[in-house]
Design a protein that fits this description.
This is M13 family metallopeptidase. InterPro entries: MetalloPept_cat_dom_sf, Peptidase_M13, Peptidase_M13_C, Peptidase_M13_dom_2, Peptidase_M13_N. It is an enzyme of class 3 (hydrolase). Keywords: Hydrolase, Metal-binding, Metalloprotease, Protease, Signal, Zinc. Its cofactor is Zn(2+). The protein is an alpha/beta fold. It has a domain of 194 residues: Neutral endopeptidase, domain 2 (Orthogonal Bundle), CATH 1.10.1380.10. The chain is 52% helix and 6% strand. Strands 2-3-5-4 form a four-stranded mixed β-sheet. Strands 6-8-7 form a three-stranded mixed β-sheet, with helices on one face. It has a two-stranded antiparallel sheet with strand order 1-9. A hairpin with a 4-residue loop joins strand 7 and strand 8. Helix 3 crosses helix 4, helix 9 crosses helix 10 and helix 17 packs antiparallel against helix 18. The longest helix is centred in the middle third of the chain and has 25 residues. The relative contact order is 0.16.
Length: 678
């Protein structure tokens, strides 16, 4: 996942989850297994295919909804969260709110976005000031300034951000990143692949349609021009695997040094327009991208750049433009790219919009209604249990020296966990929201958020901030802050069930917690120390041993073929695969310790150990359309769900013991071939 405090004293027995429930004041009925046994495929043995055994019947009887590109545990929970947020928003909209209050802003923002009749009537008028600003560009310095001013609102070839400095994570540092493409990744422009070529053809049709709808008399020629420029931008982009190297992407320099290294673009004008004119230094994350884009700014005729900017603005604004624009956007970004058959309901897109603009304001009400204090208390105990188990695992590593183990334990001891919701809520008092102005509201909210981010440059890091809203179904580890974060919305079945037996909870949310903890020790996170500094704290021999184990995982996952002729990229997915493998290992240790040496009950015909792995597999339940699968294989650092479930379990001694695998079983792997990292 994006989908990690101190461990318990060594040797302290971990309390069973049922006991933790009792301590939190919850009445205890006989626990359920926490498993959807009706979704199992009893004709498939877990020994042959754990994912299919736990999910086969669900897969067979479940149709992906027409408005979805994929469907499973995460999407089902996200839909539930959206419905809960919708109830909050519509409740606010149903009664008068004080002008300028955050409640009034939420209601007005949602109402404007969902009023498609008003959007249709407005036509292109809400976008005319932005389009006029493009038409007014007369010089390359003005082009650079336009690109800077668009930060936070539109994707430009060079994006700006402000993040904790990797070498001094107590302070914020501005940085650049690559962007500006209308398709998901450089591969869509550059690779000779039949499926990608089909997507390129659909994109050209989409660009042509946008140009036609905006009144362009040479629409097809404009589309070809823009596609050609985007291809040149894509050629300057780094491949996704290279972006995973935090050392390679950390390149601090002064603005003057950037201007000297990447001539052809007025970087001073770009930074000033992007509200970063006063910075002393920034990290140029992809230096060759900056050089390449600067060269394009200098050489490509301004009229071509202006055509590109017009279509970028129309594309990224299409869902707040009249129906013809919305339909064109869905035909490409929905059907062509993901295989979805119908547009997501407007109300649900409206919830996405409100969550993006005023997410923490909505989240504050959400947690009051849907996240009882007992949930947070139980999660806090689970996190402590997993951290304690992780510490014991580090102690037992045979391939790591005592010197590096001490550094690893120090890092683990400094983990900070955030559960449910932030302690300090974001202030939206300066955000202006106007009734009936969907496009304007989006622009103002984007600029409001960018101003909040830009002003942090050079200032101390606020460790209380969250990168996700409480109503987000996800979790993350943040290396510079050395923190694990679990929003409230993921803490529900099938990941977290207050009424379920321990085994399934440890296999699901326990493994999720372990996954996020493990990100601090994957191929990327392991390059940051306990204070969040990008620093090599490994001995040379230990790092070599760690990388050798990682290479085994790359080979294992690189052998999977999710689509005919399309292999899984083991290097792109390495970090997530390490986190899955390690998280599952640690969660299992924590579960076994929680039993205190006593056997778990048999529920639904399965032992506790079997329920642990079935709970793990059930959490990754999902179906995916082929177009969406291609997109994810190109851009997503996570492996497809089937390979997440089976790929980690096949390396786990506990899985083989629980199900008694033997030579000839589909999931059998000899003990000496199993990959063990943490």
């Amino acid at each position: 996942m994006k989908l990690m405090n101190k461990g318990l004293p060594r040797g302290l027995r971990l309390a069973p989850l049922a006991l933790l429930l009792a301590l939190s004041g919850q009445a205890q009925a006989a626990p359920s297994s926490g498993l959807d046994v009706g979704g199992f495929d009893k004709s498939v043995r877990a020994q042959d295919d754990l994912f299919r055994a736990a999910n086969g019947q669900w897969i067979a009887r479940t149709e992906i909804p027409a408005d979805k590109a994929d469907y499973g545990s995460f999407i089902i929970l996200a839909d539930q969260s959206d419905k809960q947020v919708r109830a909050i928003v519509e409740e606010l909209a149903a009664r008068p709110q004080q002008a300028g209050s955050v409640e009034q802003k939420i209601a007005a923002f949602y109402a404007a976005y969902t009023d498609t009749a008003a959007i249709d009537k407005a036509g292109l008028a809400p976008l005319q000031p932005r389009l006029a600003s493009i038409a007014a560009i007369k010089t390359r310095a003005e082009l650079a300034a336009w690109l800077g001013k668009a930060q936070g609102e539109f994707s430009t070839p060079v994006l700006l951000s402000v993040q904790p400095d990797s070498k001094d994570p107590t302070t914020h540092l501005a940085l650049t990143w690559q962007g500006g493409l209308g398709m998901p990744d450089r591969d869509y422009y550059l690779k000779d692949d039949e499926r990608l070529a089909k997507a390129r053809a659909a994109y050209e049709l989409y660009l042509t349609r946008l140009a036609q709808l905006s009144g362009d008399k040479q629409a097809a020629a404009t589309a070809r021009t823009v596609l050609a420029l985007e291809k040149r931008i894509a050629e300057a982009h780094w491949p996704k695997v290279e972006l995973r190297d935090p050392v390679k992407t950390y390149n601090p320099m002064t603005p003057a040094e950037l201007a000297a290294a990447a001539p052809g673009m007025d970087w001073a004008a770009f930074l000033a327009a992007g509200q970063l004119g006063g910075i002393q230094r920034l990290s140029v994350s992809q230096p060759s991208l900056a050089t390449g884009v600067a060269k394009l700014v200098a050489e490509v005729p301004l009229e071509q750049w202006k055509a590109y900017l017009r279509l970028r603005v129309l594309d990224e604004s299409a869902d707040v433009l009249p129906k013809a624009f919305r339909e064109a956007r869905f035909a490409f970004k929905g059907t062509a790219l993901t295989g979805a058959k119908e547009e997501k309901p407007r109300w649900q897109k409206g919830i996405d919009e409100v969550n993006s603009a005023l997410g923490e304001a909505v989240g504050k009400v959400y947690v009051e209604r849907h996240f009882p204090p007992a949930y947070k208390a139980r999660m806090q105990e689970l996190v402590k249990n997993l951290l304690a188990a992780y510490g014991e695992s580090i102690d037992g590593l045979a391939w790591m020296s005592p010197e590096t183990k001490a550094q690893a334990k120090d890092k683990l001891s400094k983990y900070m966990s955030k559960i449910g919701y932030p302690d300090v809520w974001r202030d939206y008092s300066k955000l202006e929201v106007k009734a009936g102005d969907a496009a304007g509201n989006r622009g103002r909210s984007s600029r409001f958020e960018w101003a909040r981010i830009a002003q942090r440059a050079g200032k101390p890091v606020d460790r209380a901030e969250w990168e996700m809203t409480p109503q987000t179904v996800n979790a993350y580890y943040n290396p510079p802050l050395n923190e694990i974060v679990f929003p409230a919305a993921i803490l529900q079945p099938p990941f977290f069930d207050m009424a379920a037996d321990d085994a399934a909870n440890y296999g699901a949310i326990g493994a999720v917690i372990g996954h996020e903890i493990s990100h601090g020790f994957d191929d990327q996170g392991s390059q940051f120390d306990g204070d969040g500094k990008l620093r090599n704290w490994w001995t040379e021999a230990d790092r070599k041993a760690f990388d050798a184990i990682g290479a085994q995982l790359v080979a294992q996952y690189g052998g999977y073929e999710p689509l005919p002729g399309k292999q899984l990229n083991g290097k792109l997915t390495l970090g997530e695969n390490i986190a899955d493998l390690s998280g599952l290992q640690i969660a299992y240790k924590a579960y076994k310790r929680s039993l205190g040496g006593q056997p778990a009950p048999v529920l639904d015909g399965y032992s506790g150990e079997q329920r642990f792995f079935l709970g793990w597999s059930q959490a990754w339940r999902e179906k995916v359309r082929e177009e969406r699968s291609l997109q994810l294989l190109t851009i997503d650092p996570h492996s497809p769900p089937k390979f997440r479930a089976n790929g980690a379990a096949v390396n786990h001694d506990g899985f083989h013991e629980a199900f008694g695998t033997k030579d000839g079983d589909g999931m059998f792997k000899p003990a000496d071939k199993r990959i063990r990292i943490w």
